[in-house]
Amino acid sequence: MMIARWHFDAKFGHKSDAIGLVREWDEQIGRQTNLETKEARIVTGSVGAKESHVEMELKIGGLNELQEFFDRISSIEMHDDWGKRMSEVVVSGSTYWEVMREVA
After folding, report:
1. Which domains can be identified in the chain, with CATH numbers?
2. pLDDT attached to residue 74
3. Total-model pTM
4. Closest-CA residue to 86 (of 21, 30, 6, 27)
5. pLDDT at residue 37 greater than cutoff 80
């Protein structure tokens, strides 16, 4: 089992808007993919991390499953519109993916 984390920093004063859009993505777009998004976690910075930092964490079976996910979201029309709205509340260039292996 692996954990895929999507990281981004919200613009000042827009963290709740960004989290709302992540939840919207989960309900409307993520459910159209091959990943089980019902168990996705959203976490934000608190102590020792930037308050503006947000992560969405998904469990994946492996890197092939993640590639299938990326291929699938690129074909969902709603994803393009959602991305444009998300770009208004996220610090440009702050997004990245990180994949961790679960060992225990």
Report:
1. 2-101 (3.30.70.100)
2. 87
3. 0.88
4. 21
5. no
